[in-house]
Batch of 4 targets.
Target 1
Amino acid sequence: MSFESGSVSMRVFKVAGNMPDDTLSRFRGKAVQPAEDITSPSVGWATGRHMLDRVIEEESAVVAGRLRLCLTKVEKRIPSSLFKVERRQEELAAMAAAGVGFLKRDERIRISKEVRERLLPKMPLSISGIDVVVESDRGSPRVYATASSDSKSDMLMASFQEAVGLSLHPVGAVSLARDAGVDPLSIKPSSFAPNGAPDMDLELGDDFLSWVWFASENKDGAFEIVEGGHKEFASILLEGPMTLVHEGNGAHEAILRKGAPTISREAKTAMLSSKKLRRAKLTLVVNKEQWSTSFDARTWTFGGLKVPPSPEKLDGVSMFEHRIMAVARFMSIVENIYGRFLGARKAQASWDAEVEAFQQWLTARPEQV
């Protein structure tokens, strides 16, 4: 699903600079090719109305004051099974005509090329897209995009740079630490397990999600957040599936799905063996608002994010605005809590105390067979 309805799997990017005044014309200059002109794989920009809408204008690409686009990839593909059958038929016909039992390599290559050229124009278009929202009303512009995989993120960053002339940087544990004035290189890796071996490399995201698990149970899930001078409390519930990882001599991973992973014997055993929590389902509640998502703390990606529903029936534009504001609020709350974590993590003395409390909690926590 996209940003207009349902759940959304997404990643957040920071724009390195302010969006230029001629942003729309720049995207329009890199618009997706017309469908009838597609002869080879093509990547280009369209509006959020549909993946081949090349009319990138104010009235079509700006919704509720936000730029709403789609990075579209269009190509024609020949099904592998069809290509093999057609190629084999041509090879058999060529062998029969020549009266031979096999074909030389050059001849097979020629036949493959001819079959591909004959079939490709007849194939339907294969269309995929990355939904994009540019949020420019908060400090440095941000981009919300359904680019949760590395390959999609790479394609988005390259296409955005080519179109606008500005680079995108994925928001994550390390970049947020730098934005907060914390140098990740000054932080030493640690282990939450008593007498455990620290990770070979620092993974702030894993530390953060593991700390959230510990803090949510020790503080009844209540995290103080302050936005615009207003204080609120957020509750966090972690559920499975959960992925725990220890980066040492090789990557060691445990995935817990069934039952209640947070209180399972397997989870406790994994943590005692120096693993840390990397992925889990997260439910966040502030006042009567509730969000849920599958959170990957290493890549800072959010899968199947569900936002609080609107209390009233809204038109399309208003619903889009409600949902984007809910996404932005969720990200702000998560980053607020991450700031609390950084406050403890950046100073060795405070972090040592936090780790000691974590280890006591881990050793004493109940477990379910």
Target 2
Amino acid sequence: MVKIAAKLCLTIDVLEEISFVFHGFGLKGWNLEILQRRWKVFHIVSLRQVHSDKFIYVDQAPSSPPRADGVVTDQPFLMLIVKTADCLPILLADPKRKGVAAVHCGWRGTAQRIAEKAVRLLEERCGCDPRSLRAGLGPCIGPSCYEVGEDVRQAFLRGALPADVFRPVAGRPGKYSLDLAAANIFQLKRAGLQESHIGRSDLCTHCRPDLCSFRRDSSRAGRALNFIGFSDSRG
């Protein structure tokens, strides 16, 4: 289930159930100033996103945003942020061990299995068991609004991703609708997450005016702030 928190961000049950984890998927109007005011004790970790599969581990806030599309930490009071405007944000947390991640999943990162790599890094650096991990998938462009070409489909097939996340667009040879969320859920399950531990918003950024969409609004789109961090209290 998706809930609206403070009217400006969404939360997902599978993450909200972890008492020491704080997360959200920003609507329009949610900004860094609001986030910092609400969680004053947290240090912000943001990225210079480059539509890649590159991940970093942090144990403190960097002095400048690193070039990457995913970030993992096992340290409390770090607020990990990824920004989106049609791409899929994924937030991961382990309720048993310290470990959270924020992932920016565009089609390029998805084709390179960035979600699967996030799980592996949590496992390697934080000692997380994939079977315990919870994943929240925020709003992204839905398949009915996301038309891509043959080049994207081939990139997914080279990445050993399922062909059924694509559907041919009627009357437009070489064009397909892409279910970006489904492609990433496939990766999370392949990496060992239980289906019941994966929550998704099912909201299409292109269809909803309160969400940021580059395909709809181009340079006027803005970016949604999606965030996750944890305190050192276990509730």
Target 3
Amino acid sequence: MAGAVSIVPFEERHHAACTAILGALPDWFGIPESNTAYLQGLRELPAFVAVRDGDVVGFASLRPHFERSAELEVMAVRPDQHRSGIGRALVLHCEAWLRARGFAVLHVKTLAPSHPDPFYARTRAFYLALGFEPVFETPALWGPENPALVSVKLLSRS
């Protein structure tokens, strides 16, 4: 059985493993320019990696937009580790990190349900199961061929 997962702050030494994870997920991360931006964001934004048995198996970054709201900008888990609790652990860690700093809202953008992509159907189900609520769909962010769904989770009511 695999060991426990630890969530730790991103460090430069994790960059190659995070790059490899994105490369292993072409059905979700198939736009090279976006991948480059996500990987740069790991260096500039609050970012975390999931480590199991000494290996980076997932990562996430947060983009604060306003004083009390932030976006889960990217989250990726190694394909051989899907459905093992790593994504959930990353999201819960991000939520706790944001709450500790007074944030009240976390949002995430995914490919919208009007697009037939089966991989993003799984992604939307994942976020829904974690308490994110779909708010709106728009072609304005990524174009009509890639409509975006914005989902929100309230972190606090204060």
Target 4
Amino acid sequence: MSTKRTKTEDEGVKIACLQVENLKRVQAVEVVCDERGLTLIGGRNGQGKTSVLDAICWALGGDRFRPSNPDHDGKEAAVHVELSNGITVERKGKNGALKVMGPAGKGGQQLLNEFVNGFALNLPKFMQAGGTEKARMLLDVFPGLGKQIEDLNAEVKKVFDERHALGVIAERKKKHAEDLSYIAGVPGKPLSGADMAKRMQDALSRNARNDAMRRDAQRAAENVEACDARVRMTGKRVEELQAALADAAQEHEKAVTDSTRARQSLAASRATAADLQDEDTTAIERELADIEATNAKVRQNAQKAAAESEASDLADHYDAMTVQLDAVRAKRIQLLASVAMPLDDLSIGDDGELIYSGQHWDGMSGSEQLRVAAAICAAVKPECGFVLLDKLEAMDLETLAEFGAWLTERGLQGIGTRVSTGDECSIIIEDGMVAEPETLKTRKEYRF
């Protein structure tokens, strides 16, 4: 994995060596530290490994790191630390008085505070902090970035919450629309009783006119029959009354003319009557009887259509807010990409917590957590080139070697403890003292 290194990191102050006497479980221990990489203090449980780290914290960090009972077996504790910048730090005497000496003369805790990082002395405090607190420590490295990220995170949360609420409503509307049944075969809008009554009145009027025309045709037929009877009667009279032939012939001619006209009228009436179609009022009568039931079905269909339309509109709004949310997130990613993070793949998520290689803190491995913590510690105070690491026995040898190589590559110094007497340890403590060579098995060179 590629890493970012800066000149400042390489120039951080390191611990060159230290001597500890009569502090907690330690009787007498001297450690010469590698300038870069991992210096491991090994030993079984309860032998004084952590006491060495406590001594460093007290010497460099001040009285807030003073052990509650520093003396070993009633003997006064003493700590001597030599730093890579030429400064020597001592604590000894009844009250553990501090003495700081360097190229420029004497100094005190204020001088140490200029280059000693409190997080480097107490890495567990960083590792046990909440996700957002870790992110805040990282953002403190970049002035002004924290406020910008905080504003963008707030905007992301606001848009996300609004979109989520909208999505819930849209889903509920969609489900409501799906639960409503659709009734086929009903009008698209409610029926009007007044309209139906008018339709019935119009139909009845047309039917009445048709009846009148039929009666006219019937009267015409009767007229034809009457005329025919007159023709027969006048014919008989012609035969009987030759004397009155002229008069009868004239009347007969007139009767024939009337008969012809009557037949023409009959034919026209019958032709008109044949084309007449009475309107069936049964459907209208049925609609009038069922108007309330029909209108209820119409309203139900309209309610379903309205619910579907509203659900569709809400879905469109949800999609638009998704685009808005993606834009804000992209702006936030671009802002984070504009700064050089202490580690590649280290960022801050929408929730304001640290993310490394796509994982939140609780999803990182133990070695990844240590790597992130050490990198942020170095970035918070580049003047401090070391970090204390307790209880590294959780790492297997391969992971431990990888972590040590990573520290070396970044120009950092790690001083750690491990419940082990293996070759990976720089020194081994037994009963508060560095184990004598003859008590150890033959050891091969094992450096990180």
